[in-house]
Amino acid sequence: MQTRNLKVLIAGGGIGGLTALLALRARGIDAELFEQAEAFRQVGAGIQLSCNATRILCRLGLGEALARVCVYPEGRDYRAWDDGDRLYYTPLGGRAETEFGAPYYHAHRADLLDVLLYGVDSKGFRLDARIDGFDQSSDGVTVTLADGTKVTGDVLIGADGIHSTVRGQLFGKELPRYTGNVAWRGLVPAERVAHLDLGRVTGVWMGPNRSIVQYYVAAGRTFNWIGISRSKQPARESWLAEGRIEDALAEYSGWHTTIRSIIAATPRVLRQALYDREPLPDWRVGRVVLLGDAAHPMMPFYAQGAAQSIEDAYVLAGCLATSPDEPEAALERYVGLRQPRTAWMQGLSRREEELYQMTDQAAIAARNARMRSNRTPEQATFPPEQIRLYGYDAEAALQAA
Fold first, then answer.
1. How far apart are the first and last CA of the chain?
2. Could you give the C-alpha distances from 34 to 8, 159, 162, 355, in angstroms and in order?
3. Is residue 214 domain-resident?
4. Domain containing 12: what range?
5. Is the pTM of this model over 0.90?
6. Which neighbouring-strand residues pair with 255?
7. How many domains does the chain fold into?
């Protein structure tokens, strides 16, 4: 079988699925994506695109389109919840681009989806096409859509999110783990917070049992914030779950006036439960494999959910292009390359929750004293975790394998 004859089916039209479609096409592989929604909806909020992700997107020809809609932050600025004292700082901007060879961006999720759709040129996907199930043999995979249509290919990629239908059929249905946290999300027109002098940074505010991350998106026209708080009662797990401004303000009672001013200026707030799953020992059965949140949903404390999906997509396309005659071996190689890194990232994201939201006063004092050693922007350095994370080059990983 030649590469040009390989046919890949993709379940799910989110960031991971669209990147997979683009990456496969760039390798000369025929691919078709199935998205259950009737249109690519403009949902979601801010997203951080770290150097490990933008390196891939630029390699796929999206660099200029990204630059037009993104924000180029100068650094990541960690502050105390009550008095706003700077605790820690890590450089981004030009220093990160020089260090890691690719830019670090803030974007609106809808803008990123538009960039990916621009890349695929509105071809190779079907909307209003929910995959209800699949059958596979030693020769291929056949998916059955909700309307009864059957489509056959050589490989099926499950990029259909944390509630993946493909994952459920492969490994049995299981409920994701409620992390004990809910997320408050808001988007604010930039002019409403201009007087706060927020700067072009990723602002991280850490407090007992809750935290907030904030930054500009949409080429600076919109200010995005996500507040995470521990809660025994989960909210709805939906991008569209409405919350109330007064409840968000009550949640962050006593916090610095900057935070409360941002919340008060927000036109509409969403409240969403946060779920993840334990790492899977394998993501593949035969010719069917998982990608992104379907394989490894993670907490948002390292802002890596989308970035890891982008890495998955690029590595998977590379493995299939290298071994088009042996798709099962290619999928096995992909899992071997990606599973250790994403499991590390899932664990790191869980541990970061405690760092951000610890409540013991002695532990907080020790954390703050430790962090203050790296809080001057001019002298601040990259911590080892960021070097390992942002320095990852998916193409180099493929070549080494």
1. 22
2. 11, 10, 16, 39
3. no
4. 3-175+277-400
5. yes
6. none
7. 1
Alpha-carbon span 362 to 187, nearest angstrom: 35
Is residue 188 domain-resident? Answer: no
CA distances 295 to 269, 312, 401, Å, are: 29, 10, 21
Residue 315 counted as domain residue = yes
Catalytic annotation present for 215: yes
Which pair of structure tokens corresponds to residue 190?
């930039």
Q: How far apart are CA 68 and CA 342, in angstroms?
A: 29
pLDDT tens, the chain, 401 aa long: 344 489 999 999 999 999 999 999 999 999 999 999 888 776 678 999 999 999 999 999 999 999 999 999 999 999 999 999 999 999 999 999 999 999 999 999 999 999 999 999 888 999 999 999 999 999 999 999 999 999 999 999 999 998 899 999 999 888 788 899 999 999 999 999 999 999 999 999 999 999 999 999 999 999 999 999 998 876 555 545 788 999 999 999 999 999 999 999 999 999 988 888 888 889 999 999 999 999 999 999 999 999 999 999 999 999 999 999 999 999 999 999 999 999 999 999 999 999 999 999 999 999 999 999 999 999 999 999 999 999 999 999 999 98
Token reading at 58:
């630029």
CATH code of the domain in which 75 resides = 3.50.50.60
What tokens does 331 get? 């999928």
3-state helix, strand, coil split of the chain in percent (to 5) is 40, 25, 35
Pairing of strands 141-145, 131-136: antiparallel
- Of 307, 240, 302, 377, the residue nearest 49 (C-alpha): 307
Contact 22, 16 (CB under 8 A): no
Catalytic residue among 78, 88, 104, 215: 215
Length of the chain: 401
CA atoms of 113 and 101, how far apart (whole Å)? 23
Residue 193 domain flag: no
